[in-house]
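Q: What would this chain look like folded?
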Amino acid sequence: MRQILRTVPLLFVVAALLAVAPANAGTAGGALHCDGTNDVVTIPDAGNDFDFNAAMTLEAWVRADGSPQTGPIVGGFQGPQFASYVLAANPSAGTFLSISTPGTNSAYGPAFAPGVWMHLAGTYDGSTIRVYVNGVQVGSAAHSGNVSSVIQLRICRFPHDITDYLNGVVDEVRVWNVVRSAGQILNSYQHSLAGNEPGLVGYYRFDEGSGQVVVDSSNAGNDGFLGASASAGTDDPTRVMSGAGLLAPGPCVRDAHTACLLDDRFEVRVTMKNFAVPPAMFPGIIQLYQAVSSETDQSVSFYSFQEGNVEVFVKMVDACASPSFVSFWLFAAGATNAETSITVRDTLADEVTTIHNASGSLFQTVADTSAFKTCGF
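A: My prediction, written as C-alpha cells:
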C-alpha cells in the first residue's frame, strides 16, 4: 500500500476537458485546524500512560501550512518550559521526532511542500529514534535512556515553548507505548484503527463535531479538551472536515459524490473550498447531462458550487496490457482556482493517489502514467 501526495497548481483548462477534483474528506471524517498562534489541545496523563520509558510510537496525519512554519503535532509535557518528546513537521526544516529526556536528540526527515496532507510517525526503542513519512522511514538518530515524567500531552503546540504552534490541520493522532515496526506503520497508516490494538494508549480522530471534549478512541480512555483549559476560549482549534488519506474499507460504492471507474475498481471523490472567510467546504457532485450521469467506465466530471458548472474531470486508463506501460494511468483537468482535493483509491490493492490544488492557483493538467503500478491484483 502506498500514498502519493502532490501539490499541483490550478491551471485554466479548455472547457472541453471540464474540471474535476476527487477528495477523501468523507472517509476521514473530522479534523482540527490550528491557527499557528495559540491553538492547542490538552490531554492529561492521569494514568501515566504517556511515560514511555524506552518504547514509544507517535503517529498523525497533518497538513502543515504557511508561516509560522514551526509545526508541533503532538508532544509530552514534563513541566514548565520542558518537553519529554515532540513529533513535528516544518515545511522548510522537515519532519522530526525530538526526545529531550535524558538529553536531546532528534531524527529528521526531508523538507516538504506546505499545504499537502501526509502521515508522519516517529518511534523510539531505547537506542534509535526513527521518523516515517507516508509509511516509509526517512530519518534516524541514535539516542538512549528512558522517556518519563510526562504530566500531559499537547497537540498543535510545543510543550516547552509558548510561542511555537502548528499552523495547519491535524487528524488521526495515535499514541503507543510500544515500538511499531516499519511494516506495522506501513500497513495501518491509511486505515482507521479498532481502538483495542496492543500498546495503543491514545487515539484521537476529532470526529466529535462540536464541544470541548476530545475523545480517546482507544481502550485507555485518555480524553482531552480543546484549548489550555476545559472552558471554551480563543485558544481552541477549529473543527473542520479532514483531508487525511484514509482508505475506505471494502469495494467502491457508487453514489452522488463517488464514481467507480474501470469495472468499479477505482473510487474517485472530490472536495473543494470556496473563497468565503472562513472558507466553506463542498463535496464534489457527479455532473448530470440531461439527467444522465457523466460517469463512464473510464471517466467522470464533478461540480461543487453550482450545478451545470463543471469544475473537474478525471479519467483512468488501463495500460496493464502494454509492454511499455505496466500500470493504470490517471488524468485530471480543472477549470477552477478554488482549493481542490482529488482522491483516487484502488479498492483491490489498497493504494490511494491524492492531488491537492491550492486556493487561488490555476489547475494544472495531470497526466500520470505510473499512478497505480498494481496490475497484478
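The radius of gyration is 21 Å.
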